[in-house]
Amino acid sequence: MLSIQEKKAAHREHHQKAKFIRIRRGIRVARYVMYRETLIDKKNIYWSFIGAFAGIASVGLLSHFYLPVKDNLFLIGSFGASAVLIYGHTQSPLAQPRNLVGGHLLSAVVGVTVRYLVPWPEWEWLACALAVAAALVVMQVTKTVHPPGGATALLAIAGSPAIRKLGFWYVLSPVASGVAILLLIAVIVNNMTDIRQYPDKGKWF
To answer: Per residue, what are the HEC states of the chain?
Structure first.
């Protein structure tokens, strides 16, 4: 029979071996994760490029005819962020149609509303902050969080007189029209290949 000291020594040896095995397993998992994350899917990148180019080109061309250059660039910036999500990260919850449409439209409504509530130029900085913060809360409550929506709300405040004159028509055009174009192209392009599905798992809302 083993003595108490021999049992303790055997226990320590077993514990050290188990610890060593866990470390080796952790290293293998880390290597696999690093390998997987550094893989470049050329086909996926190709479709991301096609979708983003077609979407932003279409929105930019449409807005070019009736918006000043400043507003057009700002709006394209907002939609450009959306393009990264819906064409480059199609499985993200933030990229789904509910979030894309709801996030932009609700944020646009919030932005215009805040502009009417705080119409004084000297308080524009406050209106901008209030519009973005309120838009975020509305998106969270309605489960339509879409980060570019913050820029859409901001444009309603910081845009040129041409944007201000639109009032709540701003929600319909250029926002709703631009979102519709982005969504249409996302549905077409992302489903032209077997490596993607949009909306993710076929869920629209």
So the answer is: CCCHHHHHHHHHHHHHHHHHHHHHHHHHHHHHHHHHHCCCCHHHHHHHHHHHHHHHHHHHHHHHCCCCHHHHHHHHHHHHHHHHHHHHCCCCHHHCHHHHHHHHHHHHHHHHHHHHHCCCHHHHHHHHHHHHHHHHHHHHHCCCCCCCHHHHHHHHHHCCHHHHHHCCHHHHHHHHHHHHHHHHHHHHHHCCCCCCCCCHHHCCC
